[in-house]
Write a structure and sequence with these properties.
Blueprint lengths: L3 E3 L4 E2 H9 L5 H8 L7 H4 L7 H11 L1
Antiparallel strand pairs: 1-2
Helix pairs in contact: 1-2, 1-4
This protein binds FE2/S2 (inorganic) cluster (FES).
Protein name: Ferredoxin
Pfam families: Fer2_BFD
């Protein structure tokens, strides 16, 4: 099963990792590469009920 980080745009942890490995360093760059946060309806899609932005920032730190 995929582990989504952005549920609204079905972006996985792996997608974030590969964006960072390819050189994306900021949330803005990761969003541009992965297509995350393009269609936000987080309250409905994300089990946490909030947007994935913070989680993406955490992953950028983890993978950098
Ligand atoms: S979970 Fe990423 S924009 Fe909603």
């Amino acid at each position: 099963m995929y582990e989504y980080i952005c549920y609204c745009d079905k972006v996985t942890k792996g997608d974030i990792a590969s964006a960072v490995f390819k050189g994306a360093k900021t949330l803005k760059e990761v969003v541009a590469v992965t297509g995350a946060m393009m269609n936000p309806d987080c309250e409905r899609n994300n089990p946490k009920g909030i947007c994935c932005g913070k989680d993406i920032v955490e992953l950028i730190k983890e993978y950098s």
